[in-house]
Specification:
Helix content is about 35%, strand content about 20%. It has 8 helices and 15 strands. It has an 8-stranded parallel β-barrel, surrounded by 6 helices.
């Protein structure tokens, strides 16, 4: 991977891309409570500060694509933005959350430093243009149904909307029923477009609909995939983290335990140094 050939983007005081150390995007899947958000943000920031990693806090105010109509979706946009702002102001860190409909972009951008396009919605032109028009950084997840080179059309939608402050995120590809696989070549292919590449290591181990009314996953493979992605030379790691994933209201089977994160990131920094010489 030609690490020095990719465009760098700015998020607050952070610079992502080029030969910079990887940035960590992490937090609970959904905004369950302010207490859980605070616990995760505070601990992850402490770890990242000690290891010299730039940190962006992530949580969703609405999980609009839950398997079951009975599943918890989140607090909604109004309460969710209040919670996100509390975390942002307290810890002085950038924050990211997903948007599912074009009208949400204008509201979310009042708080969020980065907007995230969910994988299932990565081809929704109206949503992409609305996100681009905010002028904010955008993390675009590659659809499970797309080849990596097909992201070129999505990139063009942003470029034609005069927003080149984008990142392309790999979260795995559908492999038969209820399964995902990660082709590490996808990270290289998307990097050819000249933008930073993010590797979503926790959604990559999902088993969509694997529990019938909910998604399952293989947490044991998160750390190995993270190591592989960093060895390829990704610019950022996306990981959902929770104090007790077993009791999480969304994505529990594939989220990392907060208590394990420090040792995982220590190894991550070592690999990143070898690859980038930083």
């Amino acid at each position: 991977m030609l690490i020095d050939k990719v465009n760098k983007i700015k998020i607050g005081n952070y610079e992502i891309g080029g030969n910079n150390r990887f940035t960590l995007i992490a937090g609970p899947c959904v905004m369950e409570s302010l207490e859980i958000m605070d616990e995760v943000a505070g601990k992850v920031k402490e770890i990242c500060d000690n290891l010299g990693i730039n940190y962006i806090f992530k949580a969703s105010f609405d999980k609009a694509n839950r398997s079951s109509i009975y599943s918890y979706r989140g607090p909604g946009i109004e309460e969710g933005m209040k919670m996100l702002k509390t975390i942002k102001d307290k810890y002085k860190i950038p924050v990211i959350t997903d948007v599912h409909e074009a009208w949400q972009c204008e509201k979310v951008v009042e708080v969020a430093d980065v907007l995230q396009i969910p994988a299932f919605l990565c081809r929704q032109t109206d949503l992409l243009i609305a996100a681009a028009n905010t002028g904010k950084a955008i993390n675009i997840k590659k659809g499970q149904f797309l080849a990596p080179w097909d992201m070129k059309n999505i990139v063009i939608k942003f470029e034609e909307s005069n927003n080149k402050n984008i990142m392309l995120c790999e979260r795995g590809s559908t492999f038969g029923y209820n399964n995902m696989v990660v082709d590490m070549r996808a990270l290289l292919e998307m990097r050819k477009f000249g933008y930073p590449v993010v590797f979503d290591v926790t959604h990559a181990v999902q088993k969509p609909g694997g529990l019938g009314t909910a998604t399952s996953g293989d947490r044991e493979y998160v750390f190995p995939l993270l190591r592989a992605g960093l060895a390829v030379g990704v610019d950022a790691i996306f990981a959902e983290v929770h104090p007790n994933p077993v009791e999480a209201k969304s994505d529990g089977p594939n989220m990392l335990y907060l208590k394990d994160l420090e040792e995982i990131l220590k190894v991550a920094v070592k690999i990143d140094k070898i690859v980038k010489g930083n």
